[in-house]
Amino acid sequence: MPETMRRAADHLVDLLQAQGTSHIFGVPGESYLPVLDALHGRDGISFVTCRQEGGAAMAADAHARMTGRPGICMVTRGPGATNASAGVHVAYQDSTPMILFIGQVARDMIEREAFQEIDYRRMFGQMAKWVTQIDDASRMQEYISRAYRVAMSGRPGPVVIALPEDMLYDMVEVPPAPRRVVAPRYQPAPDALEALRGAIAKAERPLVMAGGGNWTAEGIAALQRFAEVQGLPISVSLRCQALMNNNHPNYVGHFAVGKTPYLAEALEDTDLLIAIGPRLGEMTTLGYTNPEPPVPKQSLAHVFPAPEEPGRVYEPEITLIADTESFCKAVADWAPIAPERFADRRASLRGSYEAFNAVSSVNNDMLAPIYKHLSETVPDDAIMTNGAGNYAAWLHRFHRYRHPGGQLAPTSGSMGYGLPAAIGAAVATPDREVYALAGDGCFMMTCQELATAVHHDLRLTVIVVNNARYGTIRVHQEREFPGRVSGTEMINPDFVAFAKSFGAGAARAEDLGSFKTALADARARGGVNLIEVVQDRALLAPGRRLD
Questions:
Q1: Are 270 and 349 in contact (CB under 8 A)?
Q2: What span, in angstroms and rounded, lies between the C-alpha atoms of 434 and 365?
Q3: For 32-48, b where at least 16 C-beta lie within 10 A, e where not — what string?
Q4: What is the 3-state secondary structure (H, E, C) of 166-219?
Q5: Paired residues of 386 in beta bridges
Q6: pLDDT at residue 542, as a whole number
Q7: What's the confidence (pLDDT) of residue 1?
Q8: Distance between CA atoms of 420 and 447, rounded to whole angstroms?
Q9: CA distance 297 to 142
């Protein structure tokens, strides 16, 4: 064969490396064996062997959030693809760039319902930006370059590519080296910027809500400068708390799954809402009631990188189609407009934030001081990951995020995200401390990934809050059908023994003192650790008890 000829599977791995891919998260399968073979002995790219495809996809999502490049996941056809769909949905709702490669049946078996065959265009159509199949190996470079561009452009998101197994053996002539794809920037229109400047000049009670995906460290720094120069209070949408140092005087809190009373009142009283990046979804808007669609009573300026989003639910007065970094850099250089006019309200909101997030704001609550101690002990750049469950309410309320990339959590409310996300973060940033927070139900969704963490010598600590029930659903159940418990009770393993069986360090904490000891031991030990926190079963949410 001429030197310009290459097996399709090797060509694929070449292209991934050319785009800067360093890690592939996946579960091996016979449908893409040539790709695994192409990875054998490669320098500069590693296959992170996971234990379930949903965990692999979630780890790839977290890796993308930490690196700013598409997370790469590879799974086998049929069951592998259906398992991975959980992580694809997370990436879609969080606007995370990801490329999922799925082994597919051979081309001469398509549409015969061959073994494990699925039409992925139909399956992933609503949860991916682009779903395709590479039937012609000679077009491999065209497809891969386009996949990176689609995943990173506009509103970022997942791309799904099916790889027929026979195609991966084809020999192709390699085209010229590909150009490395970079995320495009969208500058805000000058007239829209002037309209926003005028709106700020007229406003009496403005509020910024930052959120969404694809934020960069430069964009976060520019957001802080914008807040400081203009004297604006900065809030964030659901699970975007690391977009501003929570100790900054301009930071006033986050819009959570449940109602944050002082923020809900502030939003109701706001005359100018500047939404930088969020979609203004159900959770952030209290079920689309605050603000009220379609035309909110607040003057709305909506900054978003894709033109189809602003106006989909809420009709903005000012629309700025721009990525968050470009927008924030543009407004960070403005001269002060009227910061003194906003000073009292900003200080008042900051005071409300401090009071609401103080441990003293809740009574008879064993978890509040534990989460507070965690926040005060770990380094500023520590990474906190979590899935879904009522345990997360304490994390979001009492932890102070102080560094970009410090929070990895699914806006989709997907259980099981915390441990795989911690794996993705630990792979991407091995020099930072990583903590996965999980309830017992949440942890059991992806607990097998402890093996992945130990196998790859990662450094992370899992904190499992154990109340032996699906706590969030029990809260809803008690509200709707008091005293009629159905389907929400659980029996759990011995989590300490479970973790130790994988070779991880483990300890159980039943109070603040034992948690302090367990946390100190885990930090000193390094490697993979688990701390089981035994929760008071009467405790349903911060300050809320079953009785």
A1: no
A2: 25
A3: bbbbbebbeeeeebebb
A4: CHHHCEEECCCCCCCCCCCCCCCCHHHHHHHHHHHHHCCCEEEEECCCCCCHHH
A5: 437
A6: 87
A7: 57
A8: 9
A9: 47
**Ranges assigned E (strand) in 343-471:** 383-386, 407-408, 434-439, 460-466
- pLDDT digit string, tens, across residues 98-108: 999 999 988 88
Angstrom distance (rounded) from CA 217 to CA 329: 12
C-alpha distance from residue 176 to each of 19, 182, 402, 507 (Å)? 14, 18, 44, 55
Structural domains of the chain, ranges and CATH numbers in brackets: 5-173 (3.40.50.970), 190-356 (3.40.50.1220), 359-545 (3.40.50.970)
3-state secondary structure of 206: strand
CA gap 333, 337 in Å, rounded: 12
Find where tokens 């909506």 sit.
302
Q: Residue 328's closest CA among 447, 437, 229, 464?
A: 229
Q: How far apart are CA 169 and CA 11, in angstroms?
A: 10
Name residues of the chain where pLDDT drops below 50.
Answer: none
Instruction: Single out the residue of 369, 347, 366 nearest to residue 358, CA to CA.
Output: 369
E strands present in 305-350: 318-321
Q: In terms of Cα–Cα distance, which of 221, 345, 190 is closest to 272?
A: 345
Rounded Cα–Cα distance for residues 248 and 539 (Å): 31
On whether the CB atoms of residues 199 and 301 are closer than 8 A, the answer is yes
Identify the sign of the CA torsion 336, 341, 345, 347.
positive
What are the residues whose beta carbons fall under 8 Å from the beta carbon of 494, sequence distance 6 or more? none
Nearest residue to 411 via CA among 423, 425, 421, 403: 421
Q: In the 8-state DSSP scheme, what is residue 463?
A: E
Which H/E stretch holds residue 135?
Answer: none
CA neighbours closer than 13 Å in the CB half-sphere of residue 66: 31
Our CA angle for 265, 270, 276, nearest 5°, is: 110
Say if residues 488 and 448 touch (Cβ distance below 8 Å): no
pLDDT tens-digit map of 337-371 = 999 999 999 999 999 999 999 999 998 899 999 99
161 vs 276: CA distance, rounded Å: 31
Q: What is the pTM of this model?
A: 0.95
Tokens of 190: 């000058």
